[in-house]
Amino acid sequence: MCGIVGLFLKDRALEPRLGELLTGMLVTMSDRGPDSAGIAIYRNLSDGQAKITVQSARPEEEFAGLGDALDADITISDTHAILLVAESRVTEVMNTLRERHPGVRIMSRGAAIEIYKETGLPRTVADRFDIPALAGSHGIGHTRMATESAVTTLGAHPFSTGPDQCLVHNGSLSNHNRLRRKLARRGVRVETENDSEVAAAYLTDRMAQGDDLGAALQASLDALDGFYTFVVGTQQGFGVLRDPIACKPAVLAETEQFVAFGSEYRALADLPGIAAAKVWEPEPARVYFWEH
Amino acid sequence: MQQLDLDRQSLREVNATLQAQSDHTNQPMWEIVNPKGAHAIACGLDADLDVTIRGSAGYYCGGMNKRATIRVEGSAGPGLCENMMSGVTVVDGDASQYAGATGRGGLLVIKGNAASRCGISMKGIDIVVHGNIGHMSAFMAQAGTLVVCGDAGEALGDSIYEAQLFVRGSVASLGADCIEKEMRAEHLERLAALLEAAGSTTDPASFRRYGSARTLYNFDIDNAGAY
């Protein structure tokens, strides 16, 4: 199964409530996947600066002195930390992390994106990172019932394979190994054995070649084989795609204030103004995306 | 009217209350408030009840219904009225995939659109959709009637047996062994009756009829290579 939620705010007045609303939506979807949960949230966009979200199984040891060692501002949140650095230093800092800090995993990088994910139920994961208190412009959440790879923090969604990009997936892909090899030949690296991460990397690769989110999603209809409902985030955008067979459920809702996605209507039922929202099931093989 | 509240009562309590109503109840009118997309609302009813769900329902709403009238004042999730036996269900909004699957009788009315696999393996149910239906609808449909006032998606009626399909708009493609058929007087009469029962004023003469070419009924040695 797996449960997906997404919230893209059009009305900035709702931004302080993003974390709270997204958490409520995700907790409602808990019974679709109890293995792990994660949230990507786009917030505090600042020009010239970049955030690197890192995770460690031993945060006390690994995060102690990490900010000084990297010459970065560090904000620690349980097993995760956000490193704030000048945008020009992102590659250098990421290389240093990979070479000298093998106990620290890079979750995402970008001007706005932060990712928090762990094994466990959505309620537990959201409380560990105090997600309800986070303000932001848009966010995506996932609760996982594992099929294609192990139940680990790194196997949890969302996956981020490019700056300010992330993807969550309900379904399973059958050609991910071949696609992983193809991407590797092009120099695109993925961190895990997970099928969904390959889909994220594919979209990142398309966007690196100049596609916008919509065009990248359109291309994935030909490149990917399997079952999927994807929700994808970029710095300014939010996209949805279902495979042509469309077995995996999806509901979209739109009002003047927001666009919301849920694997089921239950996830949307408590959103403000939902009674007057336009609510519909996205068509199979049709790309939907919104940008700020 | 009796009220059941899913904010205060468990789903099991709500369904058990409705299932316990006998034919001779003097309280046939019920409403269910705060459905909020919950699953399996009003399943397994077996009495002449009139149940209104005040909002949207989730998976498997109205499954296995016998005789009851169920109204959904919103949309319904996947598996609406699965294996319905008799009675009437009316959904004001849309229905997700496989609405009316395997239904044996009764009337299912969807005033919005139905998604993929509407009426899959239907066995006698009548389904009227005021809007469009998705792909693979009426797959292996055996008996009953599917009426679509809008358009139908790909592979309509694939491997169909004896169900009758009426579509007013376009059909993206017909499935294996499904063909367009002549609309005769008895079909128009049947269609008019169903449209009236479903509260549609659409002109029966504006529909086309589809059904089985019956070429898959018996094994044909010329097709052996296809397996």
TrEMBL record, chain A:
Keyword Metal-binding in annotation: no
Species of origin: Roseobacter sinensis
A Pfam entry, by short name: GATase_6
Family annotation (PANTHER family): AMIDOPHOSPHORIBOSYLTRANSFERASE
Keyword Repressor in record: no
Protein name per the record: Glutamine amidotransferase family protein
Record domain Glutamine amidotransferase type-2: where: 2-292
PROSITE patterns found in the cross-reference section: GATASE_TYPE_2 (PS51278)
UniProt KW keywords: Glutamine amidotransferase, Transferase
TrEMBL record, chain B:
Alphabetical list of CDD domains matching this protein: GXGXG
InterPro entries in the record: Glu_synth_asu_C_sf, Glu_synth_lsu_3
Superkingdom: Bacteria
Protein name: GXGXG domain-containing protein
Organism: Roseobacter sinensis
